[in-house]
Amino acid sequence: MEANGAKPYIIRNHRPGDMGLITHRHGVLYAKELNWPPRFEAWVGRITADFIETYDAASERCWIAERKADGAFLGCVILAKDRENAGVAKLRTLLVEEDARGMGLGGELVRGCVTFAREVGYEKVSLLTAEVLGSARRLYKNEGFELVSAEEINSFGKAVVQEAWELKL
């Protein structure tokens, strides 16, 4: 997935150092916007560590969005193989920085995941999100994902309603 043209950002594949940046930005942004505790950052860190440790370039991707003008981090997403369910990919760690919202970047990142998942033969893309993340939920719905379950959890020290969404390809 490459963004170009008049867009103020580029989208590239991950490279060394990006997993730490993804973890850091999730920790900072979610603490600021939702008052989520540091244990959330640890949870994201496990996701990014697992991705790097088991990365399969043929069937998995991480995309980073950067501002063209200065290379500043604007967002990210990971598409990873679900190692417990054959034919299923997981959309993980979608994040769009505050100053990059409203440009269509989140939709472009999600569509890139779906397109890649189809190209490499996945049958379904699944994701987990929180009910409180209204913009992300609208984006997933607009891209064709369906809500399949919701439950209150307290997995990182804060009670949230976790939702599972799926898109059959």
Automatic annotation (TrEMBL):
Keyword Transferase on entry: yes
Keyword entries, A-Z: Transferase
A Pfam family annotated for this UniProt entry: Acetyltransf_1
Residue span(s) of domain N-acetyltransferase: 22-169
GO terms of molecular function: N-acetyltransferase activity
Entry's transmembrane regions: none
Coiled-coil parts of chain: none
Statement: the UniProt record of this protein carries the keyword DNA repair: no
InterPro entries: Acyl_CoA_acyltransferase, GNAT_dom, NAT_camello-type
Protein name (record): Related to GNAT family N-acetyltransferase
Organism of derivation: Cephalotrichum gorgonifer
